Amino acid sequence: SSSRSKRVVDRRQAEVGARRARERRLRGRGQVTAFRARARIIGWHPGGGLVSGRDGFFLTSEEVDAFVRDVLFAPARTFPVVGISTKHGSAQPWVDPVELQQYLGAGVLVRAFVTGTATWRLSSCLPERLDVFGGAIRIWWPGLNERSDACDHPLFIVEGPARAGRARELIRRALTERLEGLGHHGDAARDGEERVSVDDEVPRGAEQTERAKTVERATVTAIKGHRIFLDIGGESGVLAYADTKLRELAALLSPGDSIRVFRTPSRRADLVECSAQGLDPEARIPAARSAGVVDPWARIADEYAPGHVVRARVDRVEDHYILVELLPDARAIVHISELDYSYTSHPDELFEVGDVVDILILTLDPRARRCEGSIKRAYGNEVRPAISLAPGGRPFLGEEELESRPPAAGGRELHRAQQRVEELTEERQRLENDRRQLVARARELDDQNIALRKELRSVSDRLEAALREAERVDAFASETNFLTAVRVAYAQLFGEHDRFEYPLRRMKVGPEFMARAGELQGIDREKIVEVCALVVSGRCHELPGRQVHELHTGKGGTATRLRGSDDARAWRCALQINTPSARRLHWWSVPGPDGGTIEFASVAVHDDFTIPE
């Protein structure tokens, strides 16, 4: 234990020396003053841990408490903190914290944690599900406290080095949106605008100049992803800004539709950039219609409302959504999360163009020509009658769909079909009930998992404290210290699973054991403690190298040696092998419930067959 303590002290002194040498090099280049000045700007003094840990970014488990108390929970904190974790078993994260700090700027604080003791300590100091570990990245916004909700502080899952760039971009976007929403225009927002152009956003200052622009009519010529290409009086253009996100607007438009736009400063000579920002919704996205043709959105507004279940036809399948036709030239968007209650990686696993589905209308805005729906929530609900594009006309996806089906061959076949429909309906209801029960059970298991994780963290903390205490205490100073050292060695040698198979039995120290162990030379005391832990767990009997056998009176002695007072049986095992006068451990196995009691009797050389009674 003394040699281990010396190694720890030497290692810490080396770390302090390296850190001071690094500061001297930086001071020679004039960087220390600027570094500490930036630290004061973001509200954390360098003496509080800003330059501690590896490279000044990684925090150890000992630094986590002060970091959470003085930084994350600080009421006066006005800057966001980004926490990076490494994957299990690795000391390097997918996203380099130094590069991320430079990328985001001085208005954001980046810190990293190696998954293990540091992340466990972080989890114990933070509210539930607000920690970060296993390679994930989290943003802690200002105002974090014990009652904070995990959903308010975003978590980003990084699945390898190939996704590191995407992760940096998502973090930058989240920071930019938050800082702009709070009215901040710090380095993070400026750096983000310099590195990545966000087509969905209107540049600052555009609001004051938009109304002075001349409104023009443009025709949609092509849609590629979220980019909408236009024809403006014979000139080629592209829609750069709008009230809504461009990808959502692109899902609602089709080539040939007409919209009203105004021109904005262009960054390209071959394209005219336009904006639909700030215009009235009716004038902003009206489709070009011939005179006398009924507007389908007007018909939908007259007949449908949010909460209605209606019939629609799949018109377009994309990566994260599908578009369904409610009426010709009137489509609703259904997000992938609203397709089915089970996990779906791509909408084409469930639907293809031309499928007729029932959807529940979630939101309906006829003026903006926008509708959002859900297919999974429509299950089991009554479908409203189909409507027609023109009043009095043939219903869209109504009677014409029924007429296209072949008539039944006879009454018997029709009856069988109706019975089959009823059976499938009942089966669907049973499956839905089973799904609800499984969801409830999954939530219970999740709660149990959270409770077990907390208990495991508590046990780990207690074990870590016991290990630190054991390093400072001499195991052979007293019987109590020796038994405590044996228990700590047992905890280090056996994992959670092995402790069920090799439980720790009762043990005690014989009257002459401490004296003989202190007098015997040529054996490491830590080895005595380790072998005693193997003996008291019963694992020692399964290790050939320990040479466990009953203690005889000599090399040719009796087979069994019993103690008359309690029928205890004498045993011995090897502390050393292949050495002159190899040391042996002698103990008494006292019978009793739960494996009885192990009484450590003495430590002797190979030819010593005595054992104190």
| Number of extended strands | 20
Q: Tell me, what's the shape? A: elongated
Look at the structure and give the mean pLDDT. 77
Low-confidence parts = 30-54, 182-212, 278-293, 400-412
Structural class: alpha+beta
Largest sheet: 6 strands, mixed
| Percent of sequence in beta strands | 15-25%
Q: Could you estimate the helical fraction of the residues in percent? A: 25-40%
Number of helices: 17
Please compute the radius of gyration using only Cα atoms. 37 Å
Query: What is the CA-CA span between the terminal residues?
Result: 31 Å
Secondary structure layout:
Layout lengths: L1 H27 L3 H10 L19 H12 L8 E5 L11 H8 L4 E5 L3 H9 L11 E4 L14 E2 L7 H18 L5 H9 L10 H5 L4 E10 L2 E6 L2 E7 L4 H7 L5 E6 L8 E4 L5 H4 L11 H8 L5 E9 L3 E7 L2 E6 L20 E10 L4 E5 L24 H6 L6 H62 L6 H15 L2 H6 L4 E4 L3 H7 L5 H13 L11 E2 L11 E2 L4 E7 L8 E8 L6 E9 L8
Parallel strand pairs: 1-2, 7-9, 15-20
Antiparallel strand pairs: 1-3, 3-4, 5-6, 5-8, 6-7, 8-9, 10-11, 10-13, 11-12, 13-14, 16-18, 17-18, 18-19, 19-20
